[in-house]
Design a protein that fits this description.
Layout lengths: L3 H18 L5 H5 L8 E2 L17 E2 L2 E4 L6 E4 L1 H10 L12 H23 L6 H5 L2
Length: about 140
């Protein structure tokens, strides 16, 4: 009789084998070893931070998307995806939502907010403020 742990390992191995040999399921396994032009290979060692039940990609392809703020159509390149998933450790199910210009605007706005908060922290309190804190 096998333990639960041994049984789970066998099931996982069988599922992995089936996923690699099957034409059903993941888009990447359907393509097999054939890679379209302009793709970037994925490094599964760098994707070890991903905790998902789904399959990890074998490679990245350019993905078109529409910016949520301004509505501009852009392409999330395979190289940028590789950086996002493997270097920045983004989750494998996340995708691009904002164009480059909107991301710059968001960063600039956050920087302004930080500077404002630093100024507010250095500002002298109002003389009556101490009275209201004791209430």
């Amino acid at each position: 009789m096998k333990s639960g742990k041994q049984r789970r390992l066998e099931i996982k191995a069988r599922r992995r084998q089936r996923a690699m040999s099957s034409t059903k399921g993941n888009t990447f396994s359907r393509l097999g070893n054939v890679r379209p032009a302009g793709v970037v290979a994925a490094d599964h060692l760098q994707l070890s931070h991903v905790d998902t039940y789904g399959f990890l990609p074998a490679f990245y392809v350019d993905l078109p998307f529409t910016c949520r703020i301004c509505g501009v159509n852009e392409i999330w390149t395979a190289a940028r995806q590789k950086w996002w998933y493997e270097m920045a450790k983004g989750h494998i199910d996340s995708t691009a939502a904002h164009c480059r210009q909107c991301r710059r605007d968001i960063r600039a706005e956050k920087q302004l907010q930080k500077e404002h908060m630093k100024e507010m922290a250095q500002k002298k309190p109002h003389p009556n403020e101490a009275f209201f804190k004791n209430i």
